């Protein structure tokens, strides 16, 4: 089996070929708020839960990670569950951490108990088991530390 980086390289080549042949999706995969540009995204109300996932990415993997999220994971989520994607935001760092790593955030606002937030679920459904495994390897290779997950409740403020 090829490594996650090899799959990513092949995927990048496939994407460039699709772009040249005008087969790219009509919506922009570079949307940062997850709503697909379809209007205001929902936000938690007082008492509802919010989840923040913190991804610390290795210094030399920043661009690869951002491309993976925008061009692989995001489109998979939009394909499988566009309504859920409207409540997920992806924030990029404005500068590197002191050690050179990069901190990205996923915010699920509101967090929905019935929803599936496992990225592998979306990757498997959009790209199949083999590619999903390779993308999971890429996920692991890019992280400096495992993803941190924080849950909170929306206050009155």
Q: What does this molecule look like?
A:
There is one protein chain. By secondary structure, this protein is α+β, with helices and mostly antiparallel strands. It has a single domain, classed as Alpha-Beta Plaits, CATH 3.30.70. Helices cover 40% and strands 17% of the residues. It contains five helices and four strands; from the N terminus they run αβααββααβ. The chain has helices at residues 4-20, 62-80, 82-85, 119-127, 129-142; strands spanning 49-57, 88-91, 102-108, 148-153. Strands 2-3-1-4 form a four-stranded antiparallel sheet, with no helix packed on it. The longest helix has 19 residues, at 62-80. Residues 17-35 have low confidence and may be disordered.
How does the SSE layout of this entry go?
Elements lengths: L3 H17 L28 E9 L4 H19 L1 H4 L2 E4 L10 E7 L10 H9 L1 H14 L5 E6 L4
Antiparallel strand pairs: 1-3, 1-4, 2-3
């Amino acid at each position: 089996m090829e490594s996650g980086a090899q799959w990513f390289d092949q995927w990048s080549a496939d994407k460039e070929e699709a772009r040249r042949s005008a087969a790219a999706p009509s919506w922009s995969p570079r949307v940062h708020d997850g709503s697909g540009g379809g209007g205001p995204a929902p936000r938690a109300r007082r008492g509802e839960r919010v989840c923040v996932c913190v991804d610390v990415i290795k210094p030399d993997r920043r661009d690869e990670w951002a491309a993976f999220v925008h061009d692989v994971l995001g489109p998979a989520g939009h394909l499988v569950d566009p309504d859920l994607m409207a409540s997920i935001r992806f924030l990029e760092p404005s500068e590197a951490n002191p050690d050179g790593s990069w901190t990205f955030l996923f915010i699920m606002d509101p967090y929905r108990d019935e929803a599936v937030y496992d990225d592998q679920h979306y990757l498997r459904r959009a790209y199949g088991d083999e590619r999903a495994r390779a993308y999971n390897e890429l996920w692991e290779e890019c992280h400096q530390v495992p993803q941190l997950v924080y849950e909170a409740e929306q206050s009155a403020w």
